[in-house]
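WARN retry 2 of 3 for item q-0093 after timeout on previous attempt; input resubmitted unchanged.
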Amino acid sequence: MSVLADRLAERTLELVDIPSESRHEAAIRERLRGLVPPPYREVFAGDEAFLWARERRRDAPLLVLAGHYDTVPAQGNVPGHIAAGVVHGCGASDMKGGVAVAIELVRELAARAPGPVDVALLLFGREELPPRFDPLPALFDGCPLVHEAGLAVLLEPTDLEIQAGCVGTLTARVTFHGRSGHSARPWLADNALHRAIEGLVRIAAHERREAIVAGLPFFEVVSVTRLESGVADNVVPATAVATLNLRYPPDRSPRTRRSSCGGSSRPMRRWR
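OK item q-0093 returned
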């Protein structure tokens, strides 16, 4: 087990050290394509979505191992490192570790006779971007093999738990309006940033909500992910813009969960 763990850690670290911010995935994409050995062949190669499989057997169910290879922007965490048995670095959790596991599994399976289940590998980029960048619809439309899958496992970090189902995500930009003025006479202005802080208190205090759907637990959570305001250090801002991200269970729909929190919102929807 120690040898296997070390191998997976080293592969994860290798992938972490390849810059792979969304829309800049060329290096990581080509490295991963080079790691998939025969007899696996690339049965679909699209715009940042790739599926590999061995020759299909009519009587064997198909399992798809899936993962995305892009990351959010690095924050001083590339290159990565290993400390106390843990890989640290941009995307180590989300989801270079899962991709490393999938790659090593496929490499192991390639060296063996086929077992009772056919295993395919799906890797894709641009997962961290809004829906219009999603490469998977083209895969679903252009790759008949993927529809043969009896089960797909997305190797996101779950601490070895299997979590079924998905949650929706809604991102909204909320604008708070005030009146600009000089910070030496703030009583002559109306501070939009102060209004934003007051308006966002309820968001910060929001407790997660659990919903049980078809026997599966889902959690609704909302976070403030950005707060932008101000033009100078001595100017009271006239506007403040907060970005909110809501993750909601399938007992809600985008139409039943819209809130402007006292400002104007521009919602965007995506299932993930």
